[in-house]
């Protein structure tokens, strides 16, 4: 069962090619404000420069699609989407390019938290509001208007609480539990927060051992590679915390290749994050126990913020998206039907 990344890569390449053309639309080709979606007060297209960090996971593909589907010309926007292919220097270049193009708004999904001050300062000097989507930056908060995304520490803590309850139900509260973690990109908010959150619960259980943490880069291939190595290094792994679904998919493959089993009927507990559609198949199949949702549909939320800013309103600095979790005890077939990403 392959994730959507391969198909998504094709889609995002086509979208980027299309957008490249669409993105060349010029200002002043305003749509009439009445009934033609929202436009700026002056009735022209609102230009939005979006620096997307990459296409590494199903989650990321859905996140990009959400922006492309929201910031359309029909809705009154001219979206300039630059995909950084997981390189921060490409994001810094994109921000500087948007400043030169004098866009109305800059949206950034920062791959890591550090290294943004000078690029954001240039945007601020040019009077262009910056909205952070999905991940946070470690910079003075005067350099960005607001953050929209997940509360990663909370996600990590919820995962720890879920494991606590699961082990209690299994009568394993006193058992020594050996845990390994496949982390996302080092320095990324999602990896930092999920690690910190789970650790907050781990420290309440002296019978839980975090044997090792590896960087799976949020990708399926690296996740599988690191899991293979962990299985070779540790005889008794009871739980694998995968900080996104694509790494969980890779971990499941590695566990099966090692002749072991995972999931509610298997030896190893798999905890995952994102809850993308493909992960529901794994939970239904019984290889992943639980998945902590991280909603990728930031497009509409960011559009709402831009409209508020256009109306001269101030917006909250930190805007967490609503998130829940899904596990093997639920009606996953039904829940999967409602998933759009
Ligand atoms: C989370 C996001 C993470 C996802 C991964 O908001 O930053 O990046 O969990 C993605 O799938 O690569
Ligand atoms: Zn054990």
From TrEMBL:
Residues 53-289 form the Periplasmic binding protein domain. GO terms for molecular function: carbohydrate binding. The keyword Metal-binding does not apply. This is ABC transporter substrate-binding protein. It comes from Candidatus Merdiplasma excrementigallinarum. Belongs to the bacterial solute-binding protein 2 family. One of its GO terms (cellular component) is cell envelope. Coiled coil: none annotated. It comes from the Bacteria. Residues 1-22 form the signal peptide.
